[in-house]
Every structure is written in C-alpha cells, then in structure tokens.
Recover the amino acids of this structure.
C-alpha cells in the first residue's frame, strides 16, 4: 500500500534514520554474514596475518575517506577495491594465497567498522545499508573465487585467471548496483528500472576504476608483495580526491541556486518558501512519473528558479501568485527568467523548461506541447499559489479539484493525478 | 605562445638540443623495443587526453605514468625516447613549436629521472618479487626529479615568453599539480611491476583507473565552470533592478580578486572573495526598486531601507556552505575605516578583511561607471579619490595594492550606458543628472559628491 504523505511528501532527512523493511533485511543479513564469517575464521585460525592486516588497513582507510556520489550515494572506492583485491588475491611473492572466503568477509567487515568509527565519533552516522551492500558484493566474489583458487582449479597463467577475475568483478559491481537500486526504489518510491538505470549511469566510471584497481593489486602482489597495497593506494586516492571535490562543488551549486532563488522572496516578489515548496513538489511529481535522476535535477533547478523572471517587474505581483496574473504577463516573466538562466550557457535545458512553464499543456495553435518538466512546474506552481504554506487538507483537495477542472487544456492530467496522489490524503 | 623573443627561442633550442643529445648518445644496447613501443603508445594516449587548465592553452596530461614506467623498465635512454613521443599526441591546441618544446621537455625530464633512478641504486628492467620494497626509494626520487624538472622547464618558458595569465603559481595550482603528477607517476612503478605477471596487457588495465581519474577531474572542472556561470547569471538578474549597475558585481569581483592576489592571499580565499564580490549586492533585492532608481533626495526611511541591504544579502547567501569568510565580507562591505559606515559602524581592524577589500573594489567601480545622476569618471581620477579617502574610508594597504595591480594589469571600465530603454524594466525613466543626496546629510568633512560615494553611489 502506498503511504499517505499529505503535505509531508518529501521527508528528505527522515528517511535515512528509519530503514524500511528491505533495508532492515539487508542489514540483518550482512550482520549474520559478519558473525558467521568471524566465527568460522576464529575456528580455522587466521591465514597469513600480515596480508589480513595490510588489506584490512586499506579497507579501513577507504571507508574513512568514503565520499558521496551525485544523488546522495555513498561510495568508498578504495575500500571496495581493497576488499575485492583481497578476495581475488593469487600469490603474495612466491607463496600462494590460501586464505578462506570467510576470512575475506571477516576482515572486510571488521575493517569497514573500524573505518566507520571516526565518522561516528564526530557524529556522522554510518549508513548501514551502503556498508551492507558493499560487504555483500565482496562476499559474492570471495565465496566464488576463494574455493576455486585454494583448490587450484584455475590455471596459473594470467590468461587463465584474468577472465574469471574480470567476470567476478563485474558481478560484484552488478550486485552492488542492484541492491542500491532496490533500496532506492523502496525509499524514494521510484520505479526499479529507472532506479537501476540511474545507478548504472552514476556507478559505471567509479566501478570500472575500482574493479581495474582491484585486479591490478591482486596481480601486483605477486611481484611487489604487500607493498602493492601501499603503492596502489596513492593513485586511487587521486580519483577519490577529484570525486570528493566534484561532489563538493555539486552540493554548493545546489545550495547556491536554492539560496539565490530565495532572492525573489527577500525582494517581496513571492511568498516566503514558495520556490522551495514548488521545487520539492515538482521533484516528487517527477519521481512519481518515473523521471530519471538527471532529469529530476534539471527539474529541481528549473523549479527553484521558475520565478526569477519576476525580478524584472517593477512592482511585485500581489503575494507573488503568478496564477492570478494575466497570461501575457506570465509568459513575459517566464521568458525573462529563461533569458537570465540562459546567460549561464550551461543550463540551456533548464532555461527551456522555465521558458515554457506558462504554456498550456495543449497549445491552442497545436504547436509542440511544453516539456514534461514545464508541465510539472506549471501545476506545482499553481497548486502552491492556491494553497501556500497552509497545511489544511481540505484546502489541498480544493486546490487539486480546481486544477482538475482545467486539465486537458491548461494542466497535464497525468501531472495533476500524480500531484493529487502526493498531497490529498 | 604568440611571438617569441630571441631569448625564448634560444631557451627552446637548448632544451630541444639536450633532448636530441641524450637520445642520440644512446646506448641502445639493452633496449626492449616492444616495451618502448607499448609505453610510447601509452604516453600518446595520455597526452591525447590532456585537460586544459586555463583558457590560454595550458594543459595537463598524465604523461608521467608512461615516462616513469619507462624509467624503470627501459632506463634513461628508453625513457627519453618514450618522453619524446609527446610529439605524436593527438590533440588540438599546441602549435608545432609548443609540441616540440613539450616533447623535448618530457624527454629531458625522463632522462634525468632515469639517471636519478640509477644513482639511487635502482635496477632497470622488469621488477621481480625481490625488487620490492627496495625499488620504492629510487623510484620516488626519480618521480620527484621528473616532476620537478618538468615544472622548472615549464616555468622557464613562461617566464621568458612573459605569459602572465599562464604562470602556474598565479593559478594557485603549483603544489597541487606537483602532487597530482607525483600521484599519477606512482602508476609507472605499478606498470613496471605488473609487467612480469600481466605482460603487455598491463597498460590496458592501468589506463582504466587513470582515465576514470581524469574523467573525475574533468567533471569537477566542468561543474566548477557551470557553477561560476550560473552564479554570475543570477547576479545579473539581481542587477536588472538597477539598470545602471549592470555588470557591477562582475567588476567588483574582478577588482577584489586583483587586490587579494596582490596582497598574496591563499588560493582558496581568493576563490571565496571572487564569489563574495559577485554576491555582495544581492541584498539590494530587499530594497524597493522605486528607492533604488529614485532620482531625487532620499527620505530617512528610504535611506534606512538602503542601509539594510548588506544584512538582507547575508540572509540570502547564509545557507551557501562554503562561503564562511565571504559572508562577513558581504555583510560589512559598507563599513568605513573611520567607523562611519553601516550596518554596524565597525572601525579599523574590526572590519573583516574581505569587507575592506570589497569596499575598495566596490567604490572604485561605482566611480568609474555611469550612474543615473552623473557620468563615469576616468580611471586616474578615481584612483586619486581612492588615495584621498584611504585611511578614512578605505584600508590604505588595500588601496595601495589595488592601485599597483591596476597600474600593472590595467582596468577596463564598463561601456557607457546605451541610450535606450532597458528591455525588461517597464516604467524606468532616465533620470536627469541630479545626484541623490540624503536630506540634510553632508559629507563628514565637508566635501561633497565623493564623500557620500561609498554610502550612496556604490549601493
């Protein structure tokens, strides 16, 4: 059953702390895996303590330096690469690596927890589901590859070993992406296929680098011994630093657009909180309609800035409610807003969304209808102009009813239905 | 590089001759040509995917991976040969002279790195299990020499061709790039080590993480550019409220960066002050348009509304995380050294450094651009005014820094305002040249016009 949100359709921060059933299942499963592997390892004894410590250190460091990829996805490329390399390890120097799959899982799990401790100490909560997904992927590889390698079922030359290892790395990547997509499907109420597509797009480059690095360490350890772990850590660090800076500037970008979008509120052009509410509602509708993540981001930018054109007005529209002003005026505001955004030359599609936000969903002259994002913003904006910051449910349904009267010509019926699902109890 | 001086030609010639000399002198005896070829290809791949660091063609590529792998696998002469493959890089941009210089530069750096590797006791060839960890010391020395020689030669050519915009230090990239290069260089050792296990398949596997890293760096750079473009576009939207201040934020930003660079601020702070300059006036949105565009005297209430704008600006940008110091600058950019400014009336060192920098750039741009009530002043006149008010209104140190920077790099004031109706500001009339002065408010020390400049003119 679909949970009812009424006006709380976007409890952004709340979700992370209350895992849904699927998340609990994953975390509990990972916990059991941890207990089982540690118990097994304790019974059989740790094979090659030095290697265990070296890889454990790399995994812990990688976990400590974890980063957020676009879309609030946690990743720890160094930790994953270290764990996969440990699972795929062939030889250290002259001696065959004979550690068991259980030992790989135990070392990985413990190192991940150690790496997460400093984060906990400074009050950043550990994201158990991402950690569990990473552990699960490593466990798959270890459980398949360790028995093969320890019983010498694969030949000793790189052309025998590499295809198997390559395939397993790809499998690990697929497992992590599928689990992440399942979690997102549940948490964000998007569609699995859409979520999986998003996951692949975001994770592909990092996944490729992680996998290749894991293979490199696994092979290099034969020549360089455990020094491979240290030498290898430096180059992957470069990737991780770049990605961190990228994530930082991305977050700043969104913060800045949010802040500057509020300039219309400070200027008295729109009601306080209008841009933020319209953007939240628009993104929720877009997700409901199955839009992919990249499009949602554009939608969010466009929704935040949809009123920027009002700055051209000498006198603010009363209460900022653009739904109440004449069509020509609306179009002029939209046109001007699009021109402002277009000046940046990097947000052209956002500018286009803003430009067409005031067009009716079925243009009278049978020209091209506006893009879906524009139709969403149009409906969300109209809804917010009618309801404002009020939390009265009867007002919400009255507003939706009014929008329904105009569907077909003014508002897109699909958009209004999605809106109705989100706001009417 | 444009046209080169004779000294610059001589310099390039010497570097090229050195490269040719070390390659021709050989010896070629122990060279494995498969290795040299494979590493040469790797270098061409790296060079072909160079990332531009600035608009004037300064680019960075991960060539050090291939060069340093060659140092270990093939020795100094082989490394020089691999380094010279830079000449074959497939990318648009460098002129034949630049290509030649780059190739020679990489050949010489690789050769010297190879010599260093031998000097520190490294053994050339495929590194077997026994080589580790002993090889790490010599390799680190070789990598450091490679990067250092590379940067030194590059600095030399910049210095001789007098490209101020491309000097590495100015970009604040010097140390960072050096470390990045060293980080990539570590892959060189990885190739040399894994070669004995994976053979010629090694470069393929190594290239993946490298190219992903490059992709990540490029993504970052693109996002940064997009960010700046967006901020600047949105600032222009704010400026449409007052037709006469079009481009003001951009120029204040530029001026502030000039001062900040001149007094040797760290790169991150320079970046922050650039944004502070762009955003310093967003609070004007809170001031009614009718007041901003008023042509007659301001009433007390209107004057108060104007005095609030730095606080309103702070309100808007407060949530932008990275700005910290810039926030203080935005809030206090109308304070005066003598304590007669607003909103807090801070004096002297109480005023945050960013605010004191912004105040100078802000006032200067206000003086050198058209206003509704008067035309722009020429730059020398504005400089004289800055000097005159240093110590009262402005921090003298920053005025000096700004004047020095302007004298060296020059300053382009805005074009005069076009005599047409602004496109999207219905109802704006062009006011006559009457300076708005607050009722009954004369300048603190009797002078008119300029004394109220920072309080009214540079809103």
């Amino acid at each position: 059953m679909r949970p009812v949100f009424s006006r709380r359709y976007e409890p952004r921060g709340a979700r992370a702390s209350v895992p849904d059933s699927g998340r609990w299942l994953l975390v509990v499963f990972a916990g059991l895996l941890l207990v089982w592997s540690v118990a097994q390892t304790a019974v059989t004894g740790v094979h090659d303590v030095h290697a265990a410590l070296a890889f454990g250190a790399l995994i812990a460091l990688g976990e400590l330096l974890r980063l957020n990829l676009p879309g609030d996805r946690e990743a720890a490329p160094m930790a994953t690469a270290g764990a996969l390399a440990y699972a795929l390890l062939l030889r250290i120097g002259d001696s065959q690596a004979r550690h068991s799959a259980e030992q790989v899982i135990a070392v990985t799990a413990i190192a991940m927890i150690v790496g997460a401790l400093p984060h906990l100490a400074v009050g950043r909560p550990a994201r158990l589901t991402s950690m569990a997904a990473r552990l699960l992927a490593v466990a798959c590889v270890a459980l398949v590859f360790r028995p093969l390698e320890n019983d010498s079922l694969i030949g000793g030359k790189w052309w025998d070993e590499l295809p198997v290892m390559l395939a397993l790395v790809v499998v690990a990547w697929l497992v992590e992406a599928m689990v992440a997509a399942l979690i997102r499907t549940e948490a964000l109420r998007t569609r699995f296929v859409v979520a999986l597509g998003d996951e692949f797009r975001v994770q592909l480059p990092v996944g490729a680098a992680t996998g290749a690095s894991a293979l490199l360490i696994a092979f290099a350890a034969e020549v360089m011994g455990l020094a491979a772990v240290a030498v290898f850590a430096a180059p992957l660090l470069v990737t991780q630093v770049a990605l961190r800076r990228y994530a930082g500037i991305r977050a700043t970008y969104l913060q800045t657009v949010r802040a500057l979008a509020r300039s219309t509120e400070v200027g008295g052009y729109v009601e306080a909180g209008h841009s933020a509410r319209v953007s939240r509602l628009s993104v929720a509708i877009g997700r409901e309609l199955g839009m992919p993540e990249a499009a949602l981001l554009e939608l969010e930018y466009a929704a935040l800035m949809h009123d920027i054109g009002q700055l051209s007005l000498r006198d603010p529209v009363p209460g900022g409610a653009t739904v109440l002003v004449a069509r020509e005026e609306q179009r002029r505001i939209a046109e001007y807003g699009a021109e402002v955004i277009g000046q940046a030359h990097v947000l052209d599609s956002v500018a286009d969304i803003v430009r067409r936000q005031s067009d009716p969903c079925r243009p009278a002259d049978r020209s091209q209808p506006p893009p879906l994002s524009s139709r969403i913003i149009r409906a969300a904006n109209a809804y917010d102009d009618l309801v404002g910051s009020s939390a009265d449910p009867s007002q919400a349904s009255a507003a939706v009813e009014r929008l329904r009267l105009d569907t077909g010509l003014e508002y897109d019926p699909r958009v209004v239905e999605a809106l109705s699902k989100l706001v009417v109890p | 590089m444009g046209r080169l001086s004779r000294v610059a030609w001589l310099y390039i010639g010497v570097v090229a001759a050195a490269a040719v000399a070390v390659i021709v002198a050989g010896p070629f005896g122990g060279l494995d040509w498969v290795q040299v070829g494979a590493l040469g290809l790797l270098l061409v791949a790296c060079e072909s995917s160079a990332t531009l660091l600035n608009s004037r063609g300064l680019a960075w590529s991960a060539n050090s991976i291939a060069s340093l792998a060659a140092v270990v696998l093939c020795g100094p002469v082989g490394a020089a040969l691999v380094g010279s493959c830079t000449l074959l890089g497939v990318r648009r941009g460098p002129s034949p002279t630049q290509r030649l210089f780059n190739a020679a530069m990489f050949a010489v750096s690789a050769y010297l790195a190879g010599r260093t590797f031998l000097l520190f006791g490294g053994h050339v060839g495929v590194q077997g299990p026994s080589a580790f960890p002993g090889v790490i010391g010599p390799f680190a020395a070789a990598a450091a020499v490679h990067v250092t020689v590379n940067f030194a030669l590059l600095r030399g050519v910049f210095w001789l061709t007098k490209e101020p915009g491309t000097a590495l230090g100015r970009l604040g990239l010097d140390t960072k790039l050096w470390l990045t290069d060293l980080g990539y260089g570590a892959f060189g050792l990885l190739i040399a080590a894994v070669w004995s296990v994976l053979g010629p398949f090694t470069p393929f596997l190594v290239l993946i993480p490298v190219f992903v890293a490059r992709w990540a760096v490029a993504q970052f750079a693109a996002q940064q550019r997009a960010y700046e473009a967006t901020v600047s576009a949105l600032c222009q939207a704010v400026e449409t409220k007052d037709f006469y201040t079009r481009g003001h934020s951009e120029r204040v930003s530029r001026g502030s960066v000039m001062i900040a660079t001149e007094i040797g601020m760290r790169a991150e702070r320079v970046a922050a002050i650039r944004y502070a300059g762009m955003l310093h006036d967003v609070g004007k949105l809170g001031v009614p348009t009718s007041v901003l565009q008023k042509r007659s005297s301001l009433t007390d209430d209107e004057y108060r509304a104007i005095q609030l704008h730095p606080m309103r600006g702070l309100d808007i940008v407060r949530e932008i995380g990275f700005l910290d110091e810039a926030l203080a600058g935005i809030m206090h950019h109308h304070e005066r050294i003598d304590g007669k400014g607003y909103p807090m009336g801070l004096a002297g060192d109480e005023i945050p450094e960013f605010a004191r920098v912004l105040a100078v750039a802000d006032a200067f741009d206000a003086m050198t651009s058209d206003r509704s009530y008067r035309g722009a002043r020429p730059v020398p006149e504005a400089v004289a005014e800055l000097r005159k008010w240093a110590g009262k209104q402005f921090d003298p140190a920053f005025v000096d820094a700004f004047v020095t920077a302007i004298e060296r790099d020059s300053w382009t004031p805005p074009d005069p305002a076009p005599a047409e109706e602004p496109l999207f500001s219905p109802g704006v009339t062009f006011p006559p040249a009457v300076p708005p002065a607050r009722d009954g408010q004369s300048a603190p020390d009797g002078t008119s016009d300029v004394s109220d400049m920072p309080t009214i003119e540079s809103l």
User: Anything to note?
Assistant: Chain A touches chain B through 68 residues (CB under 8 Å). Confidence is low (pLDDT under 50) at residues 1-8, 10-18 of chain A. The first strand of chain A starts at residue 67 and ends at 69.
